[in-house]
Amino acid sequence: MMKNDLLCWFFYVHQCFLISTIIVLQTGKVEVWKWSCGMLSC
Q: Transmembrane segments in this chain: where (predicted)?
């Protein structure tokens, strides 16, 4: 894995988790984590 790919993956997962957590806290729907992670990509 290249360094750029690793960096992309790190920010991708971080952003996904951060956004999803905010939505989950507001709506109470835990399945948002899986849904939003599936929608985002590097």
A: 6-25
- Contact criterion met (CB below 8 Å) for 24 and 15: no
Ramachandran category for residue 35: left, alpha or beta (phi over 0 → left; psi -120 to 50 → alpha) = alpha
Q: What is the pTM of this model?
A: 0.50
For 1-42, write each residue's pLDDT tens digit.
Answer: 577 788 877 887 788 788 888 988 999 988 877 766 665 555
**Which pair of tokens denotes residue 27?**
């709506």
* Gap between the Cα atoms of 6 and 28, Å rounded: 31
Q: What are phi and psi of 2, to 5 degrees?
A: -75, 160
